[in-house]
Every structure is written in C-alpha cells, then in structure tokens.
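cron nightly-structures :: item 1 of 1
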Amino acid sequence: MKPEENYVDLVEDIIQEVFDKELNKQEKICITLSSGVDSTLLATLLKHHFPEKKIHAVSVKFSESNDESKDAKKIAEKLDIDHTIIHIENFLEELPTQIGIVKSPFWDLHWFHIARKAKTLSDCFIAGDGGDELFGGYTFRYEKFLSLTNDSTPVNERIQSYLNCHERDWVPDQEKLFNKKIQFSWNEIFQLLKPNFDNKLSLLNQLYLADFNGKLLFNMIPLYRKFHDHFKLKYVAPILSDKLISLSTQLPDNLKYDQDKKLGKVLLQKILQKYGMDTFVTKEKQGFSVNTQNLWKRYGQKLCMYFLDESRIIRDGWINSEWVSKYIGNKDLEARYVNKFLGLLAFEIWYRIFITKEMSYDEKLKI
C-alpha cells in the first residue's frame, strides 16, 4: 500500500496529464464551478497548471433553492478567474427544448443551461463529473447504508437497503402509478441491481459500484454528452479519465470515506488542503440542485395539472389516472412524490414531441 502522500501526488499528476493532453492548445477554457470539492479542485489545479490561460467559471442559481453561487464567487475571486452566475427562475420553462435534445423523458436537465452558457465563453468545457462516484462523495448514503447492513446481510436485503438510501427516487405505492402497459416490476429492478451486490467486494465498494453503474454510467454521462454534442463543446472530465477510474478502485477505504468523521472525498480534500483551498469548500454535499418542493408550489403543480388533465400517457394506457388524481391536488407533497410528478411531466412532454408529434421543441412551459 502506497503512503497517503503518494496517492495525493498521483491523483494530481494524472489530472495534470489530462490538462496537458486536452488543453494545451486551448486559449480560453470554461469550467463549471459549484462550491463543492470536485469543481473547486479542478479550478484550483487548472489555474495552477495554466496561470496564463483565460479561465471562465460558470455557476447556476435556482429560484427558491440552496444557493452555492456566493461561495463559488469567493472561490473564483481567490483563484483570480472570471465568473458568471446563471439565474434560473422557472426550472421547467425550457423542458421541451431539453427533452428534444436528449430525446429521453428526463426532467432534471439543468446541465443544458451550463452547456449553453459555456459555449458562449469557450469551445472547451471542463467539469468535475465522477468525483462523487469514484472518490466517495455521497456521505449521507454511505452512513445510512452501513447502518442498515453488515457483512452477513443477504444480497436482496442489501439491494433493498440501497433503494432505501434513494428514497427521493421512488414512492411506496409506485406499482400503482403505472398502468398494465408498462408492466412495472420490482423484481426486475432487483435483478438489474443484483450484480452490484452479489460479489465479494466490501459493503462500501458494492455501494460505490452501484452508484457508478447507476447514476453516472447510465444517466449523467449519456445525458450530458447529448448537450455537449448539441452545443459543439469539447468536453473534458479529468476525474473520469481511465487512469483515475482504475486508481479509484484500488484506494484504501479511508482515503475515500472516513466512517468515524463521516467525511467523504478524503483524498481529494487533501489536495485542496495542499493549495490552501479546503476552507472555501461547502461542507455539506449539495451541488447544483433545485428545491423540488418549492418548484412544485411555484410552477410544477400548475404545469402538471395542465398537461396531465388531458394526458396522452394516461389516455394511451401507460399511467394510472387514479394515482395521478390521488396526489396532484396536494400543494404540500412530499419530495419523492414531487419528483415522480416531474418525471410524469417529462414523460408527457416527450410523448407529445416524439409520439403524438403535437408539441414542438421550442415551446416554453409558462403559467
């Protein structure tokens, strides 16, 4: 096992290798900047490695949601790089355009705004994608999962515990949401997740594997790629380089997640400490995220009531109208139910664009 300092140097060297390979000929570089570990780390190393290049950071501020842009501004000022904050009032307004680009029924497509702005600043765009999944960023999930499982926990119970750590992604009566045409099955979901937990890895490494294969590999990466291609952006994700992916699988657990301190991304934070930037980072895991319950009260509920009133996905037998009617009138819905309705809204818009072809990409969702 390498000394801790060697890992710190190795990660930094690999990131700088990516910089040299991908960015040497770029005069202007755009980077996404929250106040989290990943983006702060890359912005710090980028400025240190290329002090002469024009670097422009982009942050997002969503209405009535947690605002990281103020802390991101301080980071940009400390590093002496330009900084732009995108203000998003109605998170759902350009959903048809976003769905038209990705051609899939997703609603959380905030990356569209970042990529669009980045294109106005540079043809080259850098992001810290992969830091959470590869280096232990979802501390709230690890703590809960480890409290629900141990080394003797059966595979199916591990999978159920993993799902219980994603409560915002499903609802207890989810099987009643879908009509027979979809043939929803919890058993199929368990079978999809089973390879992540039916192996000889440690509990934490099983969790890391499930996160990597789920949110990152089959969600973020393909969706983000659609936006990068659409805006003709050269996208660089140093943390997702082959060398860092390989290295992350070999790291000692204590350099990812410190179970005693409930601290994640231990190794990445040590690099930030080296450059005196660790005190600028937000302590709680946040990232660019919208407060969905406030969004529901302000825009989401009215938009769902409008589009699902004469719903094509209900009429054509995909979604159960009784489930929709049971909850749609509740202004104070639990977050997990709000997320489900936003998913239905995205499904309905996708359906009208690509199936019934009665809706155009450029239509705006306003109330």
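cron nightly-structures :: done
The radius of gyration is 21 Å.
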